[in-house]
Write a structure and sequence with these properties.
Two copies of one chain form a homodimer. Chain A is an alpha/beta fold. Chain A has eight helices and five strands; from the N terminus they run βαβαβαβαααβαα. Chains A and B meet through strand 3, helix 3, helix 5 and helix 6 of A and strand 3, helix 3, helix 5 and helix 6 of B.
Chain lengths: ~230, ~230
């Protein structure tokens, strides 16, 4: 039950991390609003998962905003570049979308401000840091300060708070949270490159990290996969 | 002529300020890319001006990105709220669009990063500060730091520089710059609420500030207006 009636504005991609983040916000007593960005990603299946998660978690207002980043190019997630399937590398991956979290946090701020919500929830976590600069805690903190300075809500005394409850969790921790919160993993979608039949490939970075997480946590992932990794 | 071949990525709304900003970037030796956001603003006439300015200034890549902020609501520029015509007030105006410049700068950063440009140009100026928090210099500086932390380009050593060449100019200064740079004021569009025939109203905040600027600078504004102010 919400004691405060405060609204959490959740950036809900439809992936495992954002599903668990939304459920944590709800458990903390927030009412839920959610924003999903349809940015021309190859894995549109994620958008269906976002809608279904929003319904299951009782989100009061869910907006799916079209934003065609293919106009800009530059990422394997939106352009015609092959998604790698040979394993997770250490550098910034080709699936990096230019300034994505900067953009998505800005959109979440605009959405939150328009409905008077000052609590933003985003599912970035420890494992994302190495590859994606826009997942690092110092970026998130700097964004919060920028949003405070650049919005009516920030200036008039209700600064935005950016909650990243998975920040220090591994994928294993997140898998455990998923089960603890009674969420079915298969409601969420992680795969960057599903089969034509809509089955998760099992081999892209995102599938590999997800499977490793459930394996580490020794809990079952109910998601079917098209192929097994050789890890 | 460009000595460096460096690209300036200009946020080009189609208004007077962004036109003058783009011309200053060109004069400084940059090649021009421009981003226009079609955010469901009432004054779509501005978008036509942006295209025409881009052609006249020799912009090499001009993207007009649809982004339907009407989904969020909350501003007289995108929602069904009357645009005030009785004069410019001191507080944050109803034409404030939630987190607009935060969002537009984030989009400009994403566009710039996708084409390897690290110089962003935005037409904010002194007169905007009082009303719009997202035009203040401390916001722009904080945004630059956030973009540095949250992008591949920033992390790998080519931080974004945000140029706001009109920052300390009044509307009068901008009108003078417009003439000095041989730009026709009527290429640009400022009115928030044009007549059905597409004539600038002359009475909204944006028309009032523009007319005041040209009057102060004692230079002619070639734009036709539907009504005269009683100032």
């Amino acid at each position: 039950m919400s004691e405060s009636g405060k609204i959490a504005t959740v950036l809900l991609s439809g992936g495992l991390d954002s599903m668990v983040t939304a459920a944590i916000a709800r458990e903390s007593g927030f009412r839920l609003h959610a924003l999903t960005i349809d940015y021309g990603q190859r894995h549109v299946r994620e958008l269906k998962s976002a809608s279904s998660i929003a319904k299951k978690l009782g989100v009061e207002r869910h907006v799916t905003l079209p934003l065609d980043l293919r106009e800009f190019g530059g990422s394997a997630l939106t352009a015609d570049i092959d998604v790698p399937k040979t394993g997770v590398a250490d550098d910034i991956p080709v699936t990096y979308v230019p300034a994505r979290n900067l953009l998505f946090l800005a959109l979440t701020t605009a959405f939150a401000e328009s409905s008077g919500s000052s609590d933003l929830f985003i599912g970035v976590n420890a494992l994302d840091y190495s590859g994606y600069p826009d997942c690092r805690p110092e970026f998130i903190a700097s964004f919060a300060e920028t949003a405070r300075l650049g919005t009516k809500q920030g200036v008039e005394g209700v600064p935005f708070q950016i909650h990243a409850p998975l920040q220090h969790m591994t994928k294993g921790d997140i898998a455990r949270e998923c089960i603890r919160l009674s969420l079915d993993p298969a409601w969420s979608w992680s795969c960057y490159d599903p089969s034509p039949q809509g089955i998760a490939c099992g081999l892209c970075d995102s599938c590999r990290l997800r499977r490793k997480g459930f394996a580490e946590a020794r809990v079952a992932d109910s998601t079917p996969y098209a192929a097994d990794t050789d890890d």
